Amino acid sequence: MLPEDWREGLLVGRLQTPAGPSPVLVRDGRVHDMARIAPTVSALLELDTLSSLEGTVLGDLESLGIGGTGSAAPYSLLSPVDLQCVKAAGVTFAVSAIERVIEERARGVAGEAAAVRAKLEARVGSSIRSVVPGTAEAAALKAVLIEEGLWSQYLEVAIGPDAEIFTKAPVLSSVGWGAEVGVRSDSSWNNPEPEVVLIANGAGKAVGATLGNDVNLRDFEGRSALLLGKAKDNNASCALGPFIRLFDATFTMDDVRDAVIDLRIEGPEGYRLTGTSSMREISRDPEELLRQALSEHQYPDGFALMLGTLFAPVQDRDEAGRGFTHKPGDIVHISTPRLGALVNRVTTSKAAAPWTMGIQALMANLAARGLL
């Protein structure tokens, strides 16, 4: 699950310890419990001296039993954010823009997607892939598509001046590496959305990045964009991790821009789907998405910003023409060399572990441990 050069980078995460959740710093392969210095990851990321701070050393990361060595391990990995709001940018890749339009035209019915896809791609072709959002060329393409009755609210955010920025998950509701991720039990067309996630501090400055799975319900959002909340925000529907890799001399925003993300889905029936995407194909620069998220909003506890995905799997799983949808028991593996791997098993949101530690419970726990 770790970055290929994990002993060189500076990693921040959260562990479930016997006493409760604690922010940890991984430096030179050693895990430091930072709860006595900063009781939350949100507070920890406000500090300027992370590279030199010394917490309570728990041991070497390889020897702590983190990462699936069984129930005897004293620590388990949580989502690496806590008090940060989880935001997401949508329709930031041309391929996913086309797929969102297909969902809309198919009214969320998977069996109609193939015919809609063929018709739309025959007319739009590669033009949407080369246009820069918000430019005169984008406006000209929009005018042509409107005239031919092919315009869509998804194309508006794909090539228009304003990015789609929405709230993905409430504070403390995201799950981490190894946890189950949930899709609504009444969804029949859904997919993972593997993404790079920027982590910003309370001043809105990007301080690092992690991986994310913005689990999506194509049938719900396809029926109506007003169902975005139900399509995106359900129990266990947002996974982040394994760790936040902080920006430093070994890892910069250019590494985010150059990231190549691999997706592997392994189904309980032997099904396998793989794919690879490059962040170089994103239509808006990560810094531009960050700017738009902050244009008229503040996040004093910091926020996570999911940058969008190239993946919208169309490979048929069961019936011809119905494309891909999850089944309980699917293992989703999202990875890139500089950030590691985020691995989760799929279940329904009803069957996933209920979210119980909200802000009040966290504050009570920290107070009882004398950390506030």
Question: Can you put this structure into words, describing what you see?
Answer:
By secondary structure, this protein is α+β, with helices and mostly antiparallel strands. It contains eleven helices and 18 strands. Strands 1, 2, 3, 4, 5, 6, 7, 10, 11, 13 and 16 form an eleven-stranded mixed sheet that branches. Helix 2 crosses helix 3 and helix 2 (94-105) runs antiparallel to helix 6 (153-159). The mean pLDDT is 89.
List the helices and strands and how they pair.
Elements: E1 10-17, E2 20-27, E3 30-33, H1 41-44, E4 56-60, E5 76-78, E6 85-90, H2 94-105, H3 113-124, H4 127-130, H5 136-147, H6 153-159, E7 164-169, E8 180-183, E9 190-191, E10 194-200, E11 206-214, E12 216-217, H7 218-223, H8 228-232, E13 238-246, H9 253-257, E14 260-266, E15 272-278, H10 286-293, E16 303-306, E17 331-336, E18 340-348, H11 359-368
Parallel strand pairs: 6-16, 8-18
Antiparallel strand pairs: 1-2, 1-5, 1-13, 2-3, 3-4, 6-7, 9-12, 10-11, 10-16, 11-13, 14-15, 14-17, 17-18
Helix pairs in contact: 2-3, 2-6
| SS strand fraction | 25-35%
Helix content: 10-25%
Radius of gyration: 21 Å
Distance between the termini: 32 Å
Give unreliable regions as ranges.
Answer: none
Structural class: alpha+beta
- Give the SSE string: EEEHEEEHHHHHEEEEEEHHEHEEHEEEH
Principal-axes shape call? globular
* Strands, count: 18
Task: Give a quick account of the main beta sheet: strands, pairing sense, barrel closure.
Answer: 11 strands, mixed
| Assembly status | single chain
Q: So how many helices?
A: 11
Average pLDDT metric: 89
